[in-house]
Each structure stands twice: as structure tokens, then as C-alpha cells.
Amino acid sequence: MKKDAVFIFSEEQLGYSFSDTHPFNQKRIVLTLDLLKNMHAIHDKDIVAPRIATDEELLLVHEPKFVEIVKQAGKGEVGPEVGSVYGIGTEDTPIFSNMHEASAMLVGGTLTAVDEVMQNRARYALNLGGGLHHGFQGKASGFCVYNDSSVAIRYLQKNYNASVLYIDTDAHHGDGVQWTFYDDPDVCTLSIHETGRYLFPGTGHVTERGNGKGYGTSFNFPIDAFTEDESFLSIYETAFREVAEWFKPDVILTQNGADAHYFDPLTHLYGTMEIYKEIPRLARELAEEYCEGRWIAVGGGGYDIWRVVPRAWSHIWYAMKQLPAPTGRLPEAWLNKWQSEAPVPLIETWEDPNPLYKPIPRKLEIEEKNAQVMDRSLHYIRSEQQPR
């Protein structure tokens, strides 16, 4: 019997850990799953264990030498001079024990999600361990070793002959995925992110539209620092709808970084929990409209793991299960269990405190600039009427 949604998880996903002090902390998956369990929104039958990606699958995207170096690094056999050439052993992406196995497990989780959906065992699938969108073919970058989304897209093309619409709402530009498919007309990438003037990786300009046969299939919306909910969601809904209507994908893959929130320590956007309610709701709606429901979601950034990520990521599961968005107070059992471990006071309600921050003096100016960005990026399909 086909399930409405599956949640990909096993504790092996927690092995992707750079250090106890590194901002990328997979404990956020545990916190999210525990919150869903305390809300009685998820049950054991909904959880599917991930598998580890094979070398053959990793090589759909990654260069053989890079995979070999990652394997050696995880065994302590790579020094800093060699490692830095491949983006590992850096401050952002330190080497850790069993790096290859842990990274391949996250990729395998996204491939598991793909198969659940494409083999009609589930309508939707969620792998919060994925979303490592900065990984390149031959180099790690920005906390990301292997790029699970890129591998999953190639896997979708190879095994299911699918055209893929990739939507990235992480505050950081989805550079690794974009460049992997920059000349591929059957993969469309759409990224809404904080402008690279202030934030890593510094790419994702409106002028990055694709190359060769893939020209016009790359859409970027670099929004200004201090962007708030209304402007973010206006771009998200308008762009997603227009691009989906133009591209008409077979499947939608969404990357759900939760670092556009005001509390996130690594970014400068002023989002609230309202955007995280709407992001998955629209993804499900458009997957139903264009893809017969085929929607795969992965995690991504999100560095306030206590106050933001569990609530934000829970909304993805609620959307997949077609449950009303949760409101009111979080479960007492969850608050009591985790407050003693949290370094900050937990937010005790599904909604953010109101007001969450002081009014932004440049609000109208920011919104106008963002609207101009949206118009410039969508000009290709609006004015030129380019056929798909």
C-alpha cells in the first residue's frame, strides 16, 4: 500500500560530525524527530532507514580521485596540504574519522527518498540528513563533502529518465547543484538566498542563467540582508509558480535550509517561522499540480538547532502528511527533555515571539530591491517567451 509520506532516518546519519563545536550539528535531526513524536505526528511505520550510496552512485557526480581522497582522509591518511586542494581539512570542512562512510550515508538517504517516491511506495519523502548543496564534483566546500542533491538528480535522470526542478531556499546559494547542471536543459535550479555581497559562497547572481543547451534553466534570487517574511515569500511563491509552469518537471526536489531565520547565527536575513510554514505547503501544492505528487525534500543549513530548526523542519513533515500546521505551545515533554541541554532558552510555542525584532529602517528599500531582482531573474521566461 502506497504511503502518503516517509521520513528517512537512522542514527548512522549522525556520524556526519566535524567536531563538538562545529556549527553543522546533526543533533537537529534528533530534535526534530523527537518533537514530531511528541506531537504524535509521526510513527515508526513512517520511518525508513537510509542505505549507504555506492561508489558507482557517487561517481555519477564526483570525480574518482576526490572520492579516493575522502576515503583516505577518513582513515587519517591525508595531510593538510593535499586535503586543502580537495576542500577538506579546512576550518569549514575539517577531516573526521570515517568521513567517506558518513558522507555516503547522507547521499544514500536521499537516494532512498528518491526510490520511495519514484517506485510509488510513497507520495512524498523527507531526508533531513541531506541538503549538502555546496559539494562540487572534485572538491568539498562549506560543510559539504559529497553533494547528495546533485547525485540524486543524476540518479533520477539515469534510472527514471526524469526532468528535475530543484528548489533551494537555504540562505546560502546552492552553488554546487547549480554548477553541476549548468549546461543541462533537463535540470532546472532555483535558488533564493542572501546576496553574496555579504555571505558565503558569494555566487548566485541574477546573471547566472545556465550555459549552452542549459541556458535559461538557472534562476537566482539574491535577496538583500535584513529581508523579512513578506518579501521572501512574495519571491518564493511567484518564482516557484512561474518557473514550474514554464519548466513542467517530472519531479520536484526541495532543499530546506532553515538558516534564513532571524535567530540564525551565520546569516543576516530576518525570516520568522511563517516562511517555514509556507515553503513546504507550496512545494506540495505544485508537486501535485505538475508532478503527480512526486516531491522529495532534504535538509540543508540551519545553525540555531534549538530555537529554529526543529520547529521549521517539522512543518515539512506536517505539509507532507497534509496535517494542519501546528499552533500553540510545544509539548511539555519535549521542552523539559531538551531545555537542560540547550545553551539558550527554548522557544516554547510554534509561533515566534511577536515582535521578534525591532522594525527595519530600510524595509521599503529592501523590498523594492528584491522585487527588481525577481523581475530581472524571471525576465527570461516572462518577456522572451522562451519555449521549454
TrEMBL record:
Residues 22-319 form the Histone deacetylase domain. The keyword NAD does not apply. Keywords: Acetoin catabolism. Pfam families: Hist_deacetyl. It comes from the Bacteria. Pathway: Ketone degradation; acetoin degradation. Transmembrane segments: none annotated. Belongs to the histone deacetylase family. This is Acetoin utilization protein AcuC. It comes from Sporosarcina aquimarina. The lineage of its organism: Bacteria, Bacillati, Bacillota, Bacilli, Bacillales.
